[in-house]
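Blackboard transcription, Thursday session:
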Amino acid sequence: MSITVAAQALVKRYRDQEVVVEALRGIDLEVARGEFVAVMGPSGSGKSTLLHLLGGLDTPTTGEVLIDGRPLAGLSRTQLAALRRDQIGFVFQLYNLIPSLTVAENVALPSIAAGQSPGSYGERLDEVLDRVGLADKHDRFPPQLSGGEQQRVAVARALIRRPAVVLADEPTGNLDSHSGDALLDLFTRCHAEGQTIILVTHDSTVASAAQRVLFMRDGRFVEETELTPRGTDIVDLVQIEEPDPPALRTRAPN
Amino acid sequence: MIKFLLLGLLARRPRHGYELKTQFEKTFGGTWPLNPGQVYMTLERLEAAGLVTSKRVAQELLPDRRVYTITEDGRQELKRWTAEPSQGPIRIRDELYLKILTAVLAGQDAIGIIWTQRSSHMQALAELRAKRSDSSIDAATQLVLRGAILRTQADLKWLDLCEERLKEGDI
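(Written on the board underneath:)
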């Protein structure tokens, strides 16, 4: 499998007034095409910084990021903007939709930015809206939608240009658990269809949707686990037991 | 407490002991296994208490079997029990809780233990989530499955919380 996203010895230092903060202390990462990886860690562990570097939204102090084999550092500003538009789909915690544009217009933004005409992206637009279950919400405006629906619009926007990789930063962070589960199912489906996904979260129930989970702490990967549903029989997963008789705690009736 | 489960099955129609056991296990996809000895002993007690009656039915080439029927008293008792709110303290019987709390008590590297436990729970959650689309799982078993998913999610959130608190040095 070819590597879609790679990071080599990534270090990121910030200067916060007089103090130097080392957000990333040497990250090596290889994400293969079609892989679904979750990066998990508490707030302040550096996971969002990592995602921003992978997506070219920020530059590392030292080290290198490669998307589809191309080092980001070697790109001009225009090339980087084009790569972000065409190869990377972003999904953020706060959806980042434009409230005055319709659902369809929001989703089509990356295509419009790439200079495509409505005739050339129209079919793909319908396809991604259908895929996220919003085919009937084409002409609505974001404020008319639930949080879960708004996040699905953001996913459709991230997918419209068929990017090499989708980067998601706490995508379920603002959703109730039902909408959050529906969104994870959507990521699972995208993954099954071959999309590469890197998701960052502090929540291990969210990270469980991935194939591989990397645990981050203080700017480093400290642990890694592979999650592979093996089709285990339900009786080996769940067992109901008879509770103790309530007699243990009975009190004398009045 | 399995007496109520057996009354529940008999509320639909009379059945013999082995059928009760197999029907019960089938309903919940095998997630709730019953011990045959326990089934027969419970049926005897139910009969002694007047909640079921039984009669011997002859079978060709096989030993006679006993078919059980719920009585009106049995129906009332079942109704009373299911309507009664389940009460008392929340019972946490999971080994996970014992392990983490013991590691904290013992001054072990609880963070490392949390990671190990979390990986296995994440694996379990991934397996359970994958089962939701398994069409061979019937509706009653799906309810059991959903319950197991929610509980596993709660345990994972608890592990995340334990890690956070341990790192803050609260413990």
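Lecturer's comment: The two ends of chain A are 72 Å apart (CA to CA).
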